[in-house]
Amino acid sequence: MKRTIAIVAGGNSSEHDVSLHSAAGILSFMDTEKYDCYVVEMQGTDWHVDYNDTRLPIDRNDFSFTAPDGRHTFDFAYITIHGTPGEDGILQGYFDLIGMPYSTSDVLVEALTFNKYALNNYLRPLAGSDFHIADSVLVRRGGERPKADDVARRIGYPCFVKPNAGGSSFGVSKVKSADELADALDKALMESHEAMIEHLLTGTEITCGCYRRDDGLVVFPITEVVTSEEFFDYDAKYNGKVSEITPARIAPETADRVKRVTAAIYEHLDCYGIIRIDYILSGEAGHETINLLEINTTPGMTATSFIPQQVRAAGLEMKDVLADIIEGKLNADD
Fold first, then answer.
1. What is the DSSP code string of 299-327?
2. How does pLDDT run across 269-299, given as a tens digit for each residue?
3. How high is the pLDDT of residue 325?
4. In terms of Cα–Cα distance, which of 80, 158, 136 is closest to 292?
5. CA distance readout (Å), 187 to 83, 119, 172
6. d(C-alpha 63, C-alpha 278), whole Å
């Protein structure tokens, strides 16, 4: 008997429409012999499902819906919301309360990985000589802002200013001098109630995906990100101003180290589902410093996104990876 899967998309952030593209990608990847899949779109308290070309409201009491042919429930929620409430633990808490199994890590892991500043400080003791985490300063909306001269001494210019919670490079600025700092903070704080001022990292940008299946962790081939823009911003990501090379053109020993770091972080956090970790490699080829940028727990899932590229490069099928995640959680819950 087929399982019924909700592909949960949308959300309340600037990434709402990006999430819908990921949902369409996941829908196209799913094994239709095993699963009946429906996209559930959320925005605020407007939750609805696309069922037989009709938009129907979701009953938030139990995540069911009623159609002319009766009441329908889901067996599993595949969360592909980028940003709140799907990537910060809020939706995971709701699903825990109603007993709905889902595709991501739990509430604590999602909340921690979504808060870049908290995550960096949590992982710093793990880093040691294996990877590096850049210094940063946290700024809260409505709070006292650091003086530009203090930023120059501690972080230096140029630096990056980014929302502490957010993705797709919305609200991110490369700040080249002190007189650009205030505007960059204003921009970041429009996306999140906290912003980070972070030391500039230069080098080769890479990203590495990972997930857990019954026989252990699978770490995918690494993707190298090359852009003509000053950094990998929204325009570069979604308007074709980037080259994505999988596997990355890096030394085999460096690739092995990056994969070990990715697996170690996944295990240390006790993640579930697919995560993708972004890094900057700096220094001599083959002996680079691995600089952690961020962890994505609901990464993009269109046909051209990093994870599907990496899955193909690994000789795997997306439908099988998705089935591993669904069945792994359902079997664990039985």
1. ---STTSHHHHHHHHTT--HHHHHHHHHH
2. 999 999 999 999 999 999 999 999 999 999 9
3. 98
4. 136
5. 17, 22, 8
6. 33
Q: What is the pLDDT of residue 36?
A: 98
Omega before 247 cis (within 30°)? yes
Residues 29-39: pLDDT tens digits? 999 999 999 99
DSSP, res 215: T
Q: How many residues does the chain have?
A: 334
Q: What count of other Cβ atoms lies within 10 Å of the Cβ of residue 327? A: 15
Beta-bridge partner residues of 74: none
Please tell me the pTM assigned to this model. 0.92
CA atoms within 13 A of residue 241's CA, in its CB half-sphere: 12
Q: Rounded to an integer, what distance in angstroms lies between the CA atom of residue 290 and that of residue 199? A: 15
Given its phi and psi angles, is residue 125 left (phi above 0), alpha (psi -120 to 50 degrees) or beta?
alpha
Q: Does the structure show a pLDDT above 60 at 238?
A: no
Got the DSSP string for 24-50?
Answer: HHHHHHS-TTTEEEEEEEEETTEEEEE
Contact 162, 200 (CB under 8 A): no
